[in-house]
Write a structure and sequence with these properties.
GO terms for molecular function: cholesterol binding. By secondary structure, this protein is mostly beta strands. It is built from one helix and nine strands, in the order αβββββββββ.
């Protein structure tokens, strides 16, 4: 059976919609903020397949419950319940789409990159991403399963 052009168009539309879907994530202790949405692009399915030598866009929409002069991101690869620090190019949240000072009750779009280095091992793990305020309290913390692949 040969697919019709309309069937192909519908399939492509469904695939494009799947790419834009927010991720299912686990909130791991957002105290001073509430996460509204987490997007990792490209990551059409979970666990996210992270290809070595590629950089992924991170977009987190959250609402702040506090005032803060600044914010700092910390990223970890979690394996066997051990957090291994994962360097990111820009840990300063005020240089990552957030207009500082952060105001109570306002929503923010945090934007960053997750570079996957070629020398990383091919493994399954949990990415844990935290953003802390200037009192070192969690504005947000989320986890997603990933698989690093060649």
């Amino acid at each position: 059976m040969v697919p019709t052009p309309l069937a192909l168009l519908l399939a492509l539309g469904a695939a494009a919609t799947a790419l834009a879907e927010p991720l299912r994530f686990v909130d791991c202790g957002s105290v001073d903020g509430s996460i509204q949405e987490v997007n990792v692009s490209p990551c059409p399915t979970q666990p996210c397949l992270l290809h070595k030598g590629t950089s992924y866009s991170i977009n987190v929409t959250f609402a702040s419950k506090i005032e803060s002069q600044g914010s700092k991101a910390r990223v970890y690869g979690e394996m066997l319940h051990v957090d291994i620090p994962f360097p990111i190019p820009e840990p300063d949240g005020c240089k990552s789409g957030i207009q500082c000072p952060i105001q109570k009750g306002h929503s923010y779009s945090y934007l960053n990159k997750l570079p996957v280095k070629s020398e990383y091992p091919s493994i399954k793990l949990i990415v844990k991403w935290e953003l802390v305020d200037d009192q070192d309290q969690m504005l947000f913390c989320w986890k997603i399963p990933v698989q690093i692949t060649s």
